[in-house]
Fold this protein.
Amino acid sequence: MLIRAWREGEETAAAELVRRHARALARYLSAGGAGDDVDDLVQETFFRAFRRIETFRGEASFRGWLLAIGSNALKDYRRRLKRRQVLPLEDREIVDEGSDPHMHARERDLLEQLQAGVERLPPMQRDVFLMRAQQGLEYGAIAEALETSVGAARVHYHHAVKRLKQILQ
Amino acid sequence: MIDERDLEKLAPRLGDRAAERIDPNQVASDVLARLAAEAEPIRWWRRPALLRIAAAVTLVAGASFFALRGFSGGAGVVNEGLPAPVALEELGVTELAELVDSLEVDGPVYRLVPASLDDLSEQQLELLLEEMEG
């Protein structure tokens, strides 16, 4: 409904779509390694999405489609970052310690390790893992968003989990 | 020892801080501003209807001027391209354009002057409307 309204040029529909999906997208991009540039990447993702809204097929999950566009924006960002200065992963502030004073040290440590591990995953495994475990999308929606089969999405998820377990041990 | 369930429990918390920090209203307004800025210059140039109207108005205005000057004998120039006064009304857009071009080259006394819709006859207005409808 909102997508159709935006296609017909209704700006309030676009604003509502941003309000509904911006936080989830920010979470996804941050987990994928967007660092301090999350805000810019969220904006870039919506910009790209709205420019080619006509390519969105109504029956697919808008969230999945948006995350896939975000994933591409993140890849471009990483490429640009590589050309500039690259901070070693260990030196980056992965989880803000001040974000939750009650968080147990063990949990915080695990989250930091998980974040680092997710960033080390191959792109497809990372996308599938985050879409499934973080965003709660069904395999069908993931497969459609990433233009792969449901079976392949399951395999990527399985490999991602296996790898993350190794990293976190 | 971390298992799959632990991972699935932890994963939704990744990026919590980024999600809290983002201002969706600000993002929406920035995105819409970027889209508008990008679309603005394109919209005008790519509107075929506007271009067609502009072309039709120019042609009709030019043709009416030449018709008035030529047929009233004001400039004393014989228009060899026009067999009869009525013929002008029967010309298509391309023919009118060719006619205007040829007059511009051969007869320096003729010039295109600005004209408004008020200057056009009923027939010329009809022709203009037909052209606008394609």
User: Anything to note?
Assistant: The interface with chain A takes residues 1-4, 6-8, 10-22, 24-25, 27-32, 34-35, 38 of chain B (CB under 8 Å). The CA atoms of residues 74 and 106 of chain B lie 17 Å apart. The radius of gyration of chain B is 31 Å.
